[in-house]
Amino acid sequence: MANVLFVGNGPNLLSGNGSTWNGLLTKLEGDSADAEELKIRNEMPFTLRFESIRESKYHGQDLMAKVKEQLSDLQSNQIHDQLMALPVEHVLTTNYDYTLDPKQSGWKSDNAAPETTYSLFRRRSSNARYVWHIHGEMDNLQSIFLGHDNYVNYIHRIKNFLSTGIQTERKDRDKRPYFSKFAKGHDEKFYVQSWVDLFLECDVHMIGFTLDYTENHLWDLIRRKQSLKRLGLTTGSLHYHRVSKNQLDVKSKARKRLLESFSAKFHDYPDDSYAKSYARALDSIKKSSGQMSKVK
Fold it and tell me: Domain ends where: 51, 73, 95?
């Protein structure tokens, strides 16, 4: 079974100018807030907080350009380099930046199929390796999504891909819809690879990612991996690698229990620094990955 790496925002926090998603939203709000006010704002689901910022402060202005401005100076660090040194062909990331796939290292856009708004097929390639920007990328502001509406529409798009297909007018496909290989309408002749199928069929190693409950499309796919396996279809495992300086708290224990109930494996690496915690996690992933295996 091929291994796929799934990278969240965690490694970016080790760069000097990295920011949490709540930190990004605070910058977009652009006003002064005392400690109590920040606590209130940080309790809001970030997707709805983003929509609130859009409605109350920007009034139709290009908020995505502001997002790009905040992320444009982000620099790669040692953890990014070590992640990309792992023997995996495909890397999935929720990040919009190019710290994993910098242009100066030869990475370029190589979408599996044309897209503007959504990111089922959005990827960049270099030397037969691929980084999939599943939440959009900075070079296409229309593709970036942070808000509640984006998430609602995306899960609907993914469900269509897995069932009725995504319609297209492309003549080279005889106008045939794009289907997941797990969909009943799947036709091998017209199949196009997507990160969704990679997530379902491969062994996925998730690192640097909180897996917040607003990520409903990902929780749905985690459950779907389990249900497809019960139907006798070949699906990979999910390994969640928790990197932290702290022992498991109540929230982490709840997430662990949920993941394990869906047949995922939870790996914990508490240490006295994030660098040491990442080192242990990376060593574990490297041992389990072995030699790079291509996705068929």
Answer: 73
